[in-house]
Amino acid sequence: MTFWIAVLLGTVQGLFMFLPVSSTAHLVLTQHWLIGRGADLPPPDSAEMILFDLVVHVGTLISIVIVFRRSLYRFTAGCLHGVRDLLQRPSALPLPLRLLLLLALSVLATGVIGITFKLFFEGIFARPWAVAITMACTGALLWITDRLPPRPLGLRQIGPRTALVIGMAQGLALMPGISRSGITIAASLLLGLKRRWAAEYSFFLAIPTILAATLVQALELQAAGGATRIDGVALFTGFVVAAAVGTAALYLVVRLLYQARLRIFAWYLWLMAGLILLGVVPLSGY
């Protein structure tokens, strides 16, 4: 993998990880496009490319830490203080610890959906019409939730039911064409969360989810015998670029979410769905 290919793939990952369109389909499509033009690149499902995908996904976690650094600091400090207070004087569960448990419940729900429907979700890659439908559905969700009136619920009103539904929605994002950020934010808004808390819960949830998925894929990679064709320079380049581009993309998404303007991405998703159905954007070979 050359330096510029690593830059391109890191850019695609960083950009589409946070824009409410499907990042998986775009990353794999870019890899196939490069291979089709003679690039010396391992197949997208090879151990080498799985390793690269892991690295750029972790790079996007840096973006979340940068954009939400103040909220993450308050949340982490609140959890530590909450544990200290509970040890000194057991009482009602502090809000940060309660939210931590709810995030864990969401991750568990995502895992159950992912494990249960893994083969079904992977099979969608072989059905272009199904990918077109999932992309169109993501666009419809963005359009609908942008038109919702101001939402009433704050962090204290998030309960186990809300956490489970958001986690299950995130599990559906394992399907190509379904955006993780798009569907979790949409689910949060439909459940009544204010836009700020919908954003923070969605992107805080991404941290343990991506780490867990990375661990699972890393174990699968190790079982496959590791990777040798992609050098450390390409991996580092992809990581840095994904983090930098992801930070800019996340700032943009958060701003548009607060202004209820995410529906602009619906037009892009509907266009891509139409191009897939017409065969202009081929998905064969995934």
Features:
mainly alpha; 12 helices; 286 residues; globular
Describe, in plain words, how this protein is organized in 3D.
- It is built from twelve helices and no strands.
- The chain has one domain.
- Helices cover about 75% and strands about 0% of the residues.
- The mean pLDDT is about 85.
- The longest helix has 29 residues, at about 195-225.
Ordered list of secondary-structure elements with their pairings:
Elements: H1 3-18, H2 23-36, H3 47-67, H4 69-88, H5 95-116, H6 118-123, H7 128-146, H8 160-172, H9 180-190, H10 195-223, H11 232-258, H12 264-278
Helix pairs in contact: 1-2, 1-3, 1-11, 3-10, 3-11, 4-5, 5-8, 5-10, 7-9, 7-12, 8-9, 9-10
Write the element-wise H/E pattern from the N-terminal end onward.
HHHHHHHHHHHH
**Largest sheet properties:** none
The unreliable regions are none
Mean pLDDT: 85
- Evaluate the radius of gyration: 19 Å
By DSSP, the count of extended strands is 0
Which of globular, elongated, flat, extended, rod-shaped describes the shape?
globular
Q: What is the helical fraction, as a range of percent? A: over 70%
Secondary structure tally, helices: 12
Number of domains: 1
Determine the structural class based on helices, strands and strand pairing: mainly alpha
What is the oligomer described by this structure?
Answer: single chain
Roughly what fraction of the amino acids lie in strands?
under 5%
Amino- and carboxy-terminal Cα gap: 20 Å
